[in-house]
Amino acid sequence: MAVFKCDSCGYERVVPDVLVGKKAKCPDCIKSVVIVEDPTPSSTPFEEAFEGLDEELAETEEERLAAQGEQGAESIDIDRTESDVDYSSEDVLCEKCGAVVPHDKAGTHCPECGVLFPNAIQTSHVDERDVDVSDLTGDEPAPQVWDTDFAADDSANSGALVEELAPRRGSIFTGSLPLNIFSGLVSGVVAFYFAVAMAMLASTQIGVSEYMPHMLTVTVVGMSVGCIFYSLQGRVPFALAGPGTVVTAMMFFFLGSVYRDLAGTTHTEGVLATILVTIALTSVIAGLGLWIIGKLKAAELVRHIPVQIVGGVIGGVGVFVVLASISWMGRFDFDWRILFFSFGEFVEDLQQGGGISAMAPSLGLGLALFLGLANSKNSLFLLFVLLVTSALGYGAGAWYSNDLVTSLAHPVPDFVDAGITLSWDAIRAGYENIQWSVLKSNALYIGALGALIALTSMYRITRLELVQGADVDLNVEYRALGLTNIASGLVGGMPLGISFGRSVGNYRCGARGAVSGVIAGLVCFAGLYYAELIIPLIPRFIPEALLLFAGLTLIRGWMFKSRTPFTRREDVWMLWITFLVTAIFGILLGVGFCVSLALAVTVRRNSLLGPVSNILSGATHRSNVDRAPAQDRVLVEYGDHIHIMRLQGFISLGSMTTLLRDIHRRLADKQLLPVEYIILDFRNVSGLASAGGVVFDKLSQLVEEYEVHLVIASAPLELQEHMESGGYLHEAGGNFRLFLDLDYAMEWCENRLLESENILELKEMKLPEMLAPVFPEPSYIPALMKVFKRVVVQKEEAVFLQGEASDAMYFVESGRLEIMLETENSKRIRLKKVGPGAVFGEMGIYNLAARSATVRASEKCVLYMINNEKLKAVEKRAPMLVSCLHRYIINTLANRLANASFKVRDLMH
């Protein structure tokens, strides 16, 4: 036997055994109690639960008989216990002793205890004359209802919002520490190899190559800062940032332009200082731009830009990177300003066989890496290949005398016998000769580089989310990358982007936490410290092969692998157009064309949705107000006088113009009823253009011309201020109205329609008169009214509150009430407004769930209430009566469902 016992207030009750171990709230003190098994059960749970009930019923019966006389005994009080008595038979139940006497043997008194016997109950053919429920019309104690917040499966918090967070900032030791350290060591060595390759790419321009050691410094410093800072700040802790191929390719064009402007006008120290300041300043400005985008929470907008437009530019960058690698392989001097003629000279040299033998090792290794890592990113495999080929090349050059073989051991030119100098030392030495005007004249490169970092980072972060298996906030990543770039610039490092290949390779080596990035950054910086010893051991064909591998990977990844079955034909055209513009006219024009085309396409595609999400009619879309049937018929017939437009997105000048055109078209439509009320719902509007006031003034002119009412629902603050300052809102009335939401706006318009048809205020009717047209068996209504309890509720008084126990339903005879939902932040939302003839709280009869909303009277109301216990008693006495009541409730719920379906259908159009 299970017992509910509250230690706080002493309340105790026997409950069904299936509730053992479950939680429930005490009906008296609302404390949570665990139901336990009674160690000393009584004879039966039935006797324990209803001990003393017979005496209470007997006393009640004696008092009732004394007040009503023997005629009052024509009806009996229903036994509240669960028994095996068949109440549908004609046998008689004795209230005193519980004896069941067959009908044919029953007299006027019980043969067992001698108490006065009532007549047998007949329920087979019940009507109003046969049903006497007068003994059930008195007040009864409130039933005890178990709080179902504690479900049988202990899912009390099943409705709570479960938020799956991506790894937090600073999750250094996530995952296995040895694996993180191992992956950091591998990624650090690979990062140093790539830093050497990126230094070669940045020095590809004629004249810049003599500053190769300084280019190595800025790339290694940037690589180290990117690995450490981004790992600690981002929400993808295994991700690595650095001067990637796209960023460095842009810098190699930028530095070439700066050098050409300085050549012959400034001595060497001034040229070097200007170049290094250009790199540092570009890092800081690009980082600041990324940080601002993340701070303004505008990073998600970048996701709207078609990937193919960006892919065309990156594919063009890949072509330049391949050409740069070939330039180093064959010792070709390309004039990057007129690439077409340089490319012609390059083809001519190849046909003559010049430089082919020198290119073979780099081409072979680059193509091998490209094919070997085509479908996987594995830093350990890449490191193994780099170390083995470096050892073979250096060993071959040391052991063999053949010129072709010994060329394999040749180190990167301009590194030999050149000391490593930090950027700020060189900047201080030539600070007075820095040509700031040259930086200003080439400022477009800074903007183009920032745009490339922002566009490529969006796509790479999205792909890293798939690797991590958790979404991240793109705004947080942009802020992290921005701060990392600022840090790189402050120490003289190269601008940074997210490296997808090295990040995935780091992950597949076992990295899960930021410690791997920290280790990788430290290892890479250690390589710079020992560069004079390490660089001579790296054959030049290794970084040349890495450049070729990186360029081919960009072309394949962005030009071909980005295409999916969802790629539209126009996206393919944009991909190749941006690619050709970039490859033919240069990277700067390519980026400018990409950004312009991306903005145009994004605006066009978003504007295709239009400013209006739904156009609705008052005939089918109604307010949440339960009205009388006669009023419903009027609204169905004349509802087209109400024209509803639900707006969406950012309302720009163009979308507002489209809105005006749609409104004018509806006002001029002669096939529908003339519009009297235009409702504009701004609930889903994210913002208004600065020129919105001008368009709204034009809208007001249109409203006055057609003499209609303009009703604004969920108006933004700036629109409210404009209407108030423009004098559109008048206390005495006018053609403009503001309402909290669409529901209140609809109610106001419906009331005006009903008022114009002289049906807004119906003559006062009693509840039986209102139930008669809709109740399944009108003859049962008088008997039903006998068991109802009349309740008078004053204005602003709550009938019940959200969260209270459910045990009764209410019928409205007069007055109006509002059903309000109270949210967690104490905000109240009106769900429905009910008036005469309506029923509410009916779900409390059919389940034990707590009240889902608060019902409060907006004026003095007269209600009729029936609780669950009374309904069960009537069901035993007159099941046909309760069956009709259930049918009425079902019909009411079905009508509500049908109306909701109509609303959903209209909203989906």
From TrEMBL:
Family annotation (Pfam families): cNMP_binding, STAS, Sulfate_transp
TM segment ranges? 177-202, 214-232, 239-259, 271-293, 305-330, 350-373, 380-400, 481-501, 513-531, 537-560, 572-601
Q: Which domain of life is it from?
A: Bacteria
Start and end residues of each STAS domain: 632-749
Localization: Membrane
Q: Which UniProt keywords apply?
A: Membrane, Transmembrane, Transmembrane helix
Task: State the membrane topology.
Answer: Multi-pass membrane protein
Domain Cyclic nucleotide-binding per the UniProt entry, residue ranges: 784-874
Q: Which GO terms describe its cellular component?
A: membrane
Q: What is its main location?
A: membrane
Q: Which PANTHER family does the record cross-reference, listed alphabetically?
A: SLC26A_SULP TRANSPORTER DOMAIN-CONTAINING PROTEIN (PTHR43310:SF2), SULFATE TRANSPORTER YBAR-RELATED (PTHR43310)
Q: What is this protein called?
A: Cyclic nucleotide-binding protein
